[in-house]
Design brief:
single chain; 273 residues; mainly alpha; 4 strands; globular
Length: 273
């Protein structure tokens, strides 16, 4: 017996002619709560190190641009390039949907690197502060995907399978958006929160960022086995989706960041001896 998909209006509320979508509220919640968490993490060390609370406040606009521009360009390049070559103005139509998880991550990496260089703050420490905050946005974003009935899973016969109207085939499918909300959101958040609250881990700048990249990549790679591939792409290599292909370099980057973090910490320890 199928679980009835809870058809929820994607528009949360209206103010005159303005429609506010759940997806927009999800982004707002992710940015605001992520910002406040990063500030609280700074206070664990009494703001003795940079980046401090002031730096975090200054970086927020950079982070928002990184997520939005990176997410959109990632979707255009990795998921639907032929369409946007024919209609380049469509790239600007963000309200029609089309954001890439991996593109958003890379956009924030670029924004973090540029901000750290220009403001003369520790790149790895800054990335740690926002790595622990990122799963909050992932969680709300996947819940918004579920509300919209998009990015649904593959056909299944599990008891919690759902019929997603947007699929248009009446077939029971995995609610893969909820799987992603649980793994990329809640589980990843708890792992990173525990890590950053341990002084011995927090003081090795970059370890939390490395854990974020590795675990986020693992979780995304795993959930893709239950998620329906994008219709315009299908499977990219054998039975692997684009999301899985892009998760591999993400995990490898995490390993590289971990090695760099350990070497930097060992070097600083030797200098203080």
């Amino acid at each position: 017996m199928a679980i009835t998909f809870p058809e929820i209006n994607p528009v949360a509320f209206e103010i005159g002619p303005l429609q506010v979508h759940w997806y927009a509220l999800a982004y707002m919640a992710g940015f605001i709560l992520g910002w406040r968490l990063a500030v609280r993490v700074c206070r664990l060390d009494d703001n003795k190190f940079r980046p401090n609370e002031t730096d975090i406040d200054d970086f927020m606009s950079w982070a928002i641009l990184g997520v939005l521009l990176g997410g959109r360009l990632g979707y255009v390049l990795f998921y639907n390039l032929p369409t946007y070559i024919e209609n380049p103005l469509g790239i600007l139509k963000l309200w029609q949907g089309g954001m890439s998880f991996h593109g958003g991550v890379m956009g924030v990496v670029v924004a973090t690197t540029a901000f750290a260089y220009l403001k003369k703050v520790s790149l790895l420490r800054l990335s740690d502060l926002f790595a622990v905050s990122a799963p909050i946005g992932f969680f709300f974003g996947r819940i918004a995907n579920f509300i919209n009935g998009e990015l649904y899973g593959r056909p299944t016969d599990v008891p919690w399978g759902m019929v997603f109207p947007r699929a248009g085939d009446g077939v029971l499918r995995h609610p893969s958006q909820l799987y992603q909300a649980a793994l990329e959101g809640l589980v990843l958040f708890l792992i990173l929160l525990v890590m950053i609250r341990i002084p011995k881990i927090r003081n090795v700048s970059g370890v939390v960022s490395a854990a974020f990249l590795v675990f986020a990549g693992i979780f995304r790679f795993a959930v893709e086995f239950f998620r329906e591939p994008d219709v315009q792409l299908g499977f990219v290599f054998e039975s692997l989706s684009m999301g899985q292909i892009l998760s591999v370099p993400m995990m490898l980057l995490g390993v590289i960041v971990f090695v760099i973090a350990r070497r930097n910490h060992a070097g600083s320890q030797q200098q203080t001896v």
